[in-house]
Amino acid sequence: MNESLLSTVGRRARALRSMRRGPARYSAFDLVRRGALHQDWPRSFTQHDLKTSYDAVVIGAGVHGLATAYYLAANHGMTNVAVLDKAYIGAGGSGRNTAIVRSNYLTPEGVRFYDRSVKLYENLAVDLNFNVMFSQRGHLTLAHNDSSLRTMRWRAEVNKLQGIDSEVIGPEHISRLVPYLDVSPEARYPVLGALYHPPGGTIRHDAVNWGYARAAEHLGVHIHQYTEVTAVHIESDRVTGVSTNRGDISAPVVVNCTAGWASTVCDLAGVRLPLITHPLQAAVTEPVKVFLKAVVVSGSLHVYVSQTDRGELVFGASVDPYPSYSMRGSLEFTEELAGHVLELMPSIAKLRVLRQWAGLCDMTPDYSPIMGVTPVDGFLVDVGWGTYGYKAGPVAGEAMAELVATGKTPEIISAFDLARFAEGRLVGEKGAAAVGH
Amino acid sequence: MIRIPCPHCSARNSAEFRHVGESATRPDPSTVTPEQWRAYLYERSNPAGWTTETWFHTVGCRRYITVERHTVTNEIRAARPAGRDGRGGREPAEVLSTRADSGSPDAGGQA
Amino acid sequence: MATTPVSRRLPAQAGELIDRSRPLAFRWDGRRYVGLEGDTIVSALLANGVDVFSRSFKYSRPRGVLTGSFVDPGCTVQVGDEPNVRGAHRRLEAGMDVRPQNVWPSLRFDVKSANRLVGRFLTAGFYYKTFIKPQRLWPAYQQVLSRFASGGVTSEQNVHGYYDKRYVHVDVVVAGAGPAGMSAALAAADTGASVLLVEEEYELGGHLRYSGEQSLSTLSDLRAQVAARPSIEVMTDAVVTGRYDDNWVAVLQRHVVGAVERLVKVRAGVLVAAPGLIERPYVFDGNDLPGVMLSTAMRRLINLYAVEPGERAVVLTANGDGDAAVADLTRVGVDVVGVVDGRAGETIRRATGRGRLQAVELEDGTVLPADLLVTATGWTAPTSLLNMAGDRPVWNVTAARFVPSGTDLPSTVLATGGVVGDGGPEDLMAHGRAVGTLAGERAQGRAGGTVPTLPCAPHPAMFRASTHGFVDFSEDVSSKEVVAAAMEGYDSSELVKRFTTATMGPSQGKLETINTIAVLSEATGRAIEDLGTTVWRPPYAPISLGALAGRVFEPTRVSPMQGWHEQHGAVPLLAGQWIRPDHYGDAAREARNVRENVGIIDVTPLGKLELNGPDVPQLLNLVYVNKWSKLAVGSVRYGVMCAEDGVVMDDGVTGRLADDRYLMSTTSSGAATVWEWLENWLQTAHPDWQVHVTPVTTAYASINVAGPKSRELMQRVVEGGDLSTEAFGYMQVREGRIAGVADCVLWRIGFTGELSYELHVPASYGLHVWEELLEAGDDLGIRAFGVEAQRILRLEKGHLIVAQDTDGLTRAHSAGLGGIVKLDKDDFAGKPELAWHERFALATAPRLVALQPVDPTAVPPEASQIVTPEGDILGRITSSRMSPALGHGVCLAQVDPAVSAAGTVVTIRLPGGGDIAATVQEDLAFVDPEGVRLRA
Questions:
Q1: What is the tens place of the pLDDT at every residue in C693-751?
Q2: Do A335 and C81 touch (CB under 8 A)?
Q3: Distance (Å, rounded) from C-alpha C158 to C-alpha C161?
Q4: What is the interface pTM, i.e. ipTM, of the complex?
Q5: Alpha-carbon distance A110 to A115, whole Å?
Q6: Helix boundaries (H) for A297-349
Q7: How many CA atoms lie within 13 A of C830 on its CB side?
């Protein structure tokens, strides 16, 4: 073990011990005890006064920002950290996504990266003492033509070489997993096969956001909601702090963990990004008895669907066809979505859509994020998360925390550097495009 | 469903068009450095506000048009035939490279 | 089992909707009942003395009528195969099979009601605090939790049904046909505007329908006026579900002749929102007991359905509608044992009873036995459509409700009636008329006029009694849980909503939002106006997937020869929109026949573009990586197109037919992209070039004739031409008559690696020429071959397929095409990147190679990975087939340059497990690498 790892382990152990001594342990026993005694639960988050300086400022209180702050405190003992958000915790993409978690990516570096996230998610409830409801119910990506099937096999083979459970299955197996799916050859776009990834599934995104926030808070991190960054201060190409609507903060490190606002925030620092922001819409139906266990994605039909434990069907599709910062939602999205969903599952025509919403996705040229250093010293980015940001929250937070604390870019994110565009080194996920979820 | 005021065809539903990209000036390939070229290919202003961009009227006049649109409200204040500012608008490089079927009547299938 | 029939039906009421002469038999929870035409499911059941229709989500509490409207949370039932039917809105039909949802074993004895005992532990968000360990039990915990899921059942046997769509262009849409809405529609029509009037209920009138004789008379008059105007189209049992950009308005018609439902998409000049007001439940202990209902529910029951809502009533009234409710009850003989006046500061404390209301406890401690408690404590303005248009509602302190601010609305969105302010029918109608006139004028481009005001009447701010009760009946969230959530830190309206799930149920927040915010205000000490409301998102009312989808039009494309293919046993291949023949039974045999005799394949989907003009060579030089200036008339050249990042985009051949006339071919999936690519360059960068592009993919039927005997065959069908190799060599093109058809294009190219010709025939003659070829070549051993055989043949020749042997990162050099990139050209798409690639990246970029498996019987599946002994990836198989000509497997692969040298042995990991070895070949072509047969 090298030195930095030792110290990380040591700090983490101390942090965990201190957490256990803290207030509000969650468990069935405590639920019963407090219920029986009519005791209130203590606060999970508080509003703090804004200090004039912090060791690090994280912009964005979504899962990436909160995880970064948490791991800074838990893994590296850096607790003098502020997380700033212009709205409430998880107001952006972190509260609007359809919460699909998987690691069946195309490139070895992608697989390694997302798999680390899956592993962190698997233990997150215990680590944070907050039930994040990670349901590894299986994930299916349907292929409707030869080219797509070939890509599924490509992904399956790369996954298997990395030890990830992933396999191409045929219509008959698909039908057993999802009886409602139309796998007949008469369909307009017949299902030829699917990439089946048993460890993939869904998570309760609000729980992850609150779990990280609560744990980070308890370790001493300050989470400032309704605090908008209005300027980034730079002297001699090095960041010195930020201005907000509640006052100024000086800090040697500022991390941009926003989505939808990544370009806007980077503009404050004079950093140019290769991002295009598109709305991504989603919709949910009324609850019905649970009939769909797996998450089903169809790249060709540009649609994905899962069912929550409450019985609601959750749908999504690809991003809107033109860039925009509007989260109003459109009718044509629900029309196309419904059309494609019914092509997959014709029997659910009578289910009703209850609610639609949208979040903002920052699309990069190679379907991979942008993480790490920028030309401005101390100004770091964790952006460009497109439609695949939520599943990477834990691993991104862990890696960015390491970068902030040690000053060195961890190997697991080295392929995602901002410099790759100027150097023509785009990530291989660009190799095959699909509705990525 | 926003409407695009096509200068040739008048206001039509946006579903008739394809969004091409933010307008930019193509650098001179004979003198450009790799960094400058890739900045042209990949960097975007991506404003939350007024932007100048190119649309293509796929099922209408099939002309490229330059549009000024506010990306938050989707208000459009100008639309004119795409001019000669280098190229009318940047195709996101990944759109071409991944060969999406643009859905035009003359689209083919996968070979 | 016989039951004593109970009848709670009252004598005839003025304005009743029921037809007493038309009884309808139906089933409820397995038993047979009789209702009347005009009843809703719930009014029919109430008339029969049934007053519990469901059990709640978490605590399984019995629920009855609360609002008596579409959003009534306790009245959701299953009707046949349709889940989540709103029983207090849906009209009864003969033979309906209605069942309660999510109850086991029965409505009367639902097992989940045990939850009530542990209710104090099952507070909002309880699941976040538990089920944490041991983790491996989480799936089991999930199964338990999912039993809590409320909602009806669906089955995979359900039939899709027919759903329709319609487009409407109209001057004014009026959403809501109460007195204000109808008046607005009339006034708009009187300005000359076309009007669409949309009403959620089955008949027009809103609250006028159940507000007494005077209102009925006013209503009758308004209805007659509406019916008398042909320019007003009326839709009932229809709801405006959303207002989108530029007044794109969605209307759901819930019952139409000939379809299950219809989605009407309207581009409206002006939208007038007139949804009225929704009555708000009061929060107190016992507020969900069957027998507790809102004044509007009670008045509807009595006046529309002649149903007696109870026998002994207590009324909590804080407004005129509550007072009118007392009058209605008295009129029909219900014993009103207590009237509590909220305006005088009085209120109730709680409602009690086992399974239904039995007594009401007042704040002063008095307990009144009663089986009916009517509350009239306030209103909520359903401002959704206005919010969708940009309005941010403001809290009106005097009226104790949110009202539209009107300041952020576009001039094309207006509001009238209860949603804006208060008044009797005359006031509402006057306001509606004024707004309707304005709407009509604005829609027809005549500006001017300001929106009139309609003031709000003062109303006591009554949200919660001194006890805690439900704020969200669908989600079983009590005010106590909202307070607890706020105490824990979930203290903004968004956070409290997400944590408790209040407002996230099937009522879409219409009954829940204000009470939740009011309780949050109490708990945090922050004023309601500072907390704001949560964002109102579309749809305003739930809308089925079927209605949203409508009929899905996904056309397929076929060539003129498709009928022949089907008749001759072709197995179809779906390639984008095209249906093509994959093979006719034996692809290997078809392929062998091409190498030995002659075969023909239908390649009509091939992209084709005709280019005309003196500047075509400049365009070709710009879009292709190679040189085109010296392409002579009658010659054909192969070209590769790259995008500006140097990645291979498309390939094909282009031939010069005449001085200024060229025919370009592209891959079939690239046809549209290439056409737009060319247009982009021409329109925006080089408008001075004289080039005209015409897509001719479907103007020509295309046929490829391939094999050593193909010349002999072509000579029989091509008129007046010397097809000898001297006269018409490899990569040449000419036009002429083939099989009697003029204007055909014929070129010699060789995707399959044999002597071959590609014919482009005017499409309507495609089948004729196809059949002529088959007949003429009969003695030459001609057979049709399909796409699969073509894939085998081209693979044997090492010819790449773009997007199969290349991907989104493959630059020309990595596809073995470096040789045709002419970097000494001035400028072409992709040049800078290709030049840098050649200089800096060549050594490390992947290469396309041909691989031959060592085991002759092995055919590794496409996408198999090529690996090092440690399992690191060196590349992948991109194409792979068994070669009938050679008797062994042949592959193309993208590999790391370190293993790309001829003779290198690589390891392929098979998907099924195990590894095989393969050798890198000298050439990409396995068959005839020198191309002797091509050039015959």
A1: 999 999 999 999 999 999 999 999 999 878 998 899 999 999 999 999 999 999 999 78
A2: no
A3: 9
A4: 0.91
A5: 8
A6: 331-344
A7: 30
- Identify the bridge partners of residue C40 per DSSP, sorted by sequence position: C91
Q: What is the DSSP string of C715-768?
A: HHHBTT---STTTS-TTBEEEEEETTEEEEEEEE--TTSSSEEEEEEEGGGHHH
Size of interface B-C (CB pairs under 8 A): 144
Looking at residue C435, what DSSP letter applies?
A: H
pTM of the model: 0.91
From residue C725, how far is each of A233, A234, C721 by CA, in Å? 75, 73, 12
**Cβ distance of A433 and B94 shorter than 8 Å:** yes
Check residue C250 and give its pLDDT.
98
Q: Do A431 and C867 touch (CB under 8 A)?
A: no
Is residue C180 helix, strand or coil? helix
Q: Do C671 and B108 touch (CB under 8 A)?
A: yes
- 3-state DSSP call for residue B41? helix
CB proximity under 8 Å: A 211-240 to C: 211, 225
- Residue A380 near residue A255 (C-beta atoms within 8 A): yes
Joined together, the tokens standing for residue C626 give: 């190679």
3-state secondary structure of C94: coil
Question: From the list A325, A366, A423, which residue is nearest B72 (CB)?
Answer: A325
d(CA C202, CA C220): 15
Q: Do C545 and A338 touch (CB under 8 A)?
A: yes
Sign of CA dihedral A205, A173, C882, C910: positive
Residue C684 to residue B54, Cβ atoms within 8 A: yes
Strands B50-56 and A222-224: unpaired
| Chain B contact probe: residue of C644, C667, C681, C878 with most B CBs at under 10 A | C644
Reading the block at residue C464, the tokens are 């919660």
Question: Amino acid letter at C718?
Answer: V
How many residue pairs from chains A and B have C-beta atoms closer than 8 A? 80
* CA of B84 vs chain A CAs: smallest distance (Å): 23
Q: Quote the CA–CA distance of A142 and A137 in Å, as a whole number.
A: 16
Cβ distance of A365 and B94 shorter than 8 Å: yes
Burial of C911 (0-12, 13-18, 19+ CB in 10 A): middle
Question: In this structure, what token pair is assigned to residue A209?
Answer: 């956001």
The count of other CB atoms within 10 Å of the CB of residue C905 is 11
Q: Nearest CA to CA, how far is B90 from chain A (Å)?
A: 12
**Cβ within 8 Å, pair C487-A41:** yes
- Cβ–Cβ < 8 Å for C373, C291: yes
Q: Residue C427: in which H helix or E strand, if any?
A: helix C425-443
Hey, which chains touch B, using 3+ CB pairs under 8 Å?
A, C
Q: What's the CA angle centered on C97, arms C92 and C99, to 5 degrees?
A: 100
Other CB atoms within a 10 A radius of the CB of residue C840 amount to: 13
- Return the pLDDT at C808: 80
Q: From CA C824, how far away is CA C828, in angstroms rounded?
A: 10
Give A98's Cβ-side CA count (13 Å radius). Answer: 29
Q: State the greatest distance between any 2 C-alpha atoms of chain B, in Å, as a whole number.
A: 43
Q: Which residues of A touch B15 (CB under 8 A)?
A: 332
3-class SS at C836? Answer: helix
Which residue from C82, C547, C809 is facing A426, i.e. has the nearest CB? C809
Residue in chain A nearest C486 by alpha carbon: A43
Exposure letters C343-353 (e unless 16+ CB within 10 A, then b): eeebbbbbbeb
Chain A residues touching B18 at Cβ < 8 A:
321
| Residue A306 φ/ψ, nearest 5 degrees | -145, 170
How many whole angstroms separate alpha carbon C141 and alpha carbon C29? 30
- For residue range A207-225, list pLDDT tens digits in order: 999 999 999 999 999 999 9
In A275-351, at which residue ranges do the beta strands (DSSP E only) sit? Answer: 276-287, 295-298, 303-307, 312-317
